[in-house]
Write a structure and sequence with these properties.
The complex is a heterodimer of chains A (335) and B (342). Chain A has 335 residues and is an alpha/beta fold. Chain A is built from 15 helices and 14 strands. The termini of chain A are far apart. Chain B has 342 residues and is an alpha/beta fold. Chain B has two domains: 266 residues, Rossmann fold; 55 residues. Chain B contains 13 helices and nine strands. In chain B, the strands form two sheets. Chain B has a seven-stranded mixed sheet, with helices on both faces. A two-stranded antiparallel sheet of chain B has the order 6-7. In chain B, helix 2 runs parallel beside helix 3 and helix 9 crosses helix 11. The longest helix of chain B has 23 residues. The mean pLDDT of chain B is 95. The chains are: A alpha/beta (335), B alpha/beta (342).
């Protein structure tokens, strides 16, 4: 079994797919430097830099996908999708329906997301709930290198638009590029199991829309994605010491949601605590509650989410993003 | 009117020392995330901002600290904001890419190109509420490929908005050389949208001052927007810790981490033929080499030294001024580092 860093795993799975499928091309801002390892293996014809023109190159990626290519379009940050949302909202997400199911846009949009390193509220958002709100978009948020690689392969095989979000706190290269910048004087609370881990010797696609239970318990089910999964696991360990036994479920994809696993697991404990780094209102945490209501699963419910614009000051940021203390406190209140 | 080179130099030096202090705080780990400085673009900022009056507005990019300082925002408040203190300029909530001062009608954004629509909106409000006032947009050459900026130039053109669009062109869009991702000439774009384009040497503060003076007079008198294009060199690259500069400055430390995976990937079976791979490798090497030959390494591209050279005939006055500014910035730093009020 090999071990890999988080972004290394994504790039490795992407490289495997590119070697098999010449239709996969990769582009975005600064890609010749950021994906230099792919550039020297696949050449500038398939790995190319783009101007700071997100509306144009994302829109072009969507249409190129409709016309037979399989583009991986990289955004510098998920926040910057704000500049070019039309390509996703009104085009990629609509092609299949508008064509009566005859035409799809199999584009993969890869974007770093998330906070915890002090870049402020315009550069650290999660936004997976905002994206998943739009019918027609698949939204993937992996939490380990193995899941990240396997789900990237799945994204590349999916016949429709996929947003693949890569949490910066898990990514060795993004955290270095945007955070430390080569300094040894700054600390970030990086979950080690998410940043580096075992990966298969050959990548196989993982199922999209399938959650995994990372930890089994009896009293309460904690559900999360991305870095939140690791915060939840840490909280579960601490709760264990106080005699509280917690499930930790990693959704892995926000859209489509794994409704059946959610209902099955939560109905056993009767308590759901959602840990979501994305905004609290009108998002993933509320959606999970709605699913349980619709499926007649009786449950005590609470959530630990990001409630406001993420503050710049690190100490305020640490309190705003879901942390282990808040998760533990909320879990105890549910019992 | 002629520029007062002494006061322009004072503004530039103050800004330089201020941003060097920021760099030190960043290196010491007192600032956590990204840090984009304006070191190298001081002549452009000073030459333009010296013309601003009460009621004028500024739309800034992600490197706004130099412009805010020169506009008269309290430097202690800026530093305390960058340190994330509750009594910083924005209460520790905004941070260095999101500095806002309502009092100075100055708004920064970390979204490339956003200065365009912001300046257009500030100018629109000025047309109604503060006739004769102007709005300045500061942005880089990379932003010139952003649709919203080009749309804003057109909007300002057809609505005859009082905007000065200032393009600080350092030839780089983050880690990409702009010429590789930019078609045509930037001045032609502005002219194509019906607004005058003025070319000026961004290292020469007097030249910028004179160009901005004429542009501002036109804008204030209702003749519509102007596009000012000034070349400069960002001495620290896109941001502090800029990977390309780190490779040049500490090749033995930085190179292995890059070359080992690069070579491994280059040699891996599956993928392009050798010609394509070599072409990819050439692209990577060319980027690094362009940094080695980078004008950032050349002190003659430093606008502060450039301005100083013009004042050396009166060394005594120069030294007195420099001593005074150094003292001022060192006091600013000391106040900024004072404990957070409980």
């Amino acid at each position: 079994m090999r071990t890999m860093f988080f972004t290394q795993a994504i790039d490795d799975a992407l490289a495997q797919a590119m070697a098999d499928d010449p239709r996969i091309v990769l582009f975005g801002e600064d890609i010749p430097l950021l994906r230099r390892n792919l550039l020297v293996r696949f050449g500038p014809g398939r790995v190319r830099g783009a101007p700071i023109s997100e509306s144009a190159f994302l829109g072009a990626g969507v249409a190129a996908a409709m016309a037979g290519l399989h583009p991986v379009v990289e955004m510098y940050m998920v926040d910057f999708l704000g500049v070019c949302m039309d390509a996703l909202l009104n085009h990629a997400a609509k092609a299949e329906t508008f064509s009566g199911g005859k035409w799809t846009a199999p584009v993969v949009v890869r974007a770093p997301c998330g906070g915890g390193y002090g870049d402020g509220g315009q550069h650290e958002q999660s936004l997976w709930g905002w994206l998943a709100h739009i019918p027609g978009l698949t939204v993937i948020v992996p939490s380990t290198p193995a899941d990240a690689g396997g789900l990237m392969l799945a994204a590349l095989q999916h016949d429709g638009p996929v947003i693949f979000l890569e949490h910066k706190l898990l990514s060795e290269s993004w955290l270095e590029f945007l955070g430390s910048g080569g300094r040894c004087t700054v600390d970030y609370d990086v979950p080690p199991e998410g940043a580096q881990g075992p990966v298969p010797s050959k990548w196989e696609p993982l199922p999209i829309g399938k959650a995994v239970l990372q930890r089994r318990g009896t009293d309460i089910t904690i559900v999360s994605v991305g870095v939140g999964v690791h915060r939840a696991l840490r909280a579960a360990e601490m709760l264990e010491k106080e005699g509280i036994s917690a499930d930790v479920m990693d959704l892995r994809t926000v859209s489509p949601l794994d409704r059946s696993t959610l209902c099955e697991v939560v109905s056993k404990t009767g308590r759901l605590l959602v840990v979501d780094e994305d905004y609290e209102g009108f998002g993933l945490s509320g959606e999970l509650a709605a699913i349980l209501l619709e499926e007649d699963v009786s449950v005590n419910y609470a959530r630990v989410c990001t409630q406001t614009t993420i503050p710049y000051a690190r100490c305020l940021e640490d309190q705003t993003l879901p942390n282990v203390e808040r998760i533990c406190a909320q879990a105890k209140e549910l019992l | 009117m002629t520029p007062n080179v002494w006061s322009l130099y004072a503004l530039m030096l103050k800004s330089r020392l201020f941003e060097e202090a920021i760099a030190q705080l960043w290196h010491d780990g007192l600032i956590s995330g990204e840090m984009h400085l304006g070191t190298g673009e001081e002549a452009i900022i000073a030459g333009v901002i010296s013309h601003l009056l009460e009621g004028d507005a500024m739309a800034l990019d992600h490197r706004g600290s130099a412009a805010l300082l020169m506009r008269g925002v309290d430097p202690v408040l800026i530093l305390r904001e960058l340190l994330g203190y509750p009594d910083g300029l924005c209460g520790g909530m905004g941070g260095h890419m999101h500095l806002l001062s309502k009092e100075h009608l100055a708004a920064s954004s970390g979204i490339i190109g956003a200065a365009g629509p912001t300046a257009a909106g500030f100018a629109l409000a000025a047309q109604y509420l503060r006739p004769g006032a102007v709005a300045v947009a500061f942005f880089g050459d990379g932003a010139m490929n952003q649709g919203m900026l080009m749309e804003s130039i057109n909007l300002s053109s057809v609505w005859n908005l009082p905007v000065l669009f200032v393009c600080k062109d350092d030839g780089w869009a983050i880690t990409t050389q702009s010429e590789q991702v930019t078609g045509g000439a930037l001045n032609d774009r502005a002219r194509g949208l019906g607004i005058p384009a003025v070319e000026v040497d961004g290292l020469d503060v007097s030249a910028v001052w004179e160009a901005a003076h004429e542009a501002m007079e036109n804008i204030r008198s209702g003749k519509g927007p102007t596009f000012l294009h000034a070349r400069c060199v960002h001495l620290e690259g896109h941001f502090l810790g800029y990977q390309l500069l780190r490779i040049v400055r500490a090749p033995f430390r930085e190179m292995p981490e890059i070359t080992v995976p690069l070579t491994r990937s280059f040699l891996r079976p599956g993928g392009a033929n050798l010609r394509e791979r070599l072409s990819g490798l050439k692209t990577v090497i060319a980027t690094v080499l362009s940094t080695v030959r980078d004008p950032r390494q050349d002190q003659t591209n430093d606008p502060v030294s450039h301005a100083r050279a013009a004042l050396q005939s009166d060394l005594a006055r120069l030294r007195e001024l420099e001593d005074q500014i150094e003292k001022e910035i060192s006091n600013v730093l000391a106040s900024a580092l004072e404990e957070v009020p409980s």
